[in-house]
Amino acid sequence: MIGVEGGMKLAEALPKMPNLREVNLANNYLTGEDYDDMSAVIELAEAFTKMPSLREVNLARNNLTKYGRDMSAVIKLAEVIPSTHISSLNLQNNHLNDAAKQQLREDAPRVQFEF
To answer: What is the dihedral of CA 70, 78, 89, 82, to 10 degrees?
Structure first.
């Protein structure tokens, strides 16, 4: 389990790996044990914009929405994904509502999403 603190450290380190093609952070409590701290996910989203080789990201099972009540991390992902080279983004089991899914699809039509 990486948690929020580990996610923040990864957000600093990942851009220093420009050849990294895939990041799998599934099931790592990136929003904390209470699912109420979106800061690591928001920082990771920013880090993805600095990774020119990154193509696949797996953020499944991290409860990125606090059971659908906080969409800030998803909004940030929707904002930055178009400025990345990500072609596949797994967001399964993160309690995204239909509006969030639609927004992601509209903002990044070239990305294959798993919800």
So the answer is: -170
Print the domain residue range for 19. Answer: 3-114
Supply the pLDDT for residue 88: 98
Residue 3 near residue 30, CB atoms below 8 Å: yes
Provide the CATH number for the domain around residue 70. 3.80.10.10
Tell me which long-range contacts 110-113 makes (C-beta under 8 A, separation of at least 24).
111/81, 111/86, 111/87, 112/87, 112/88, 113/89
| Cβ pair 61, 92 in contact under 8 A | yes
pTM of the model as a whole: 0.94
Token pair 């389990």 is found at 1
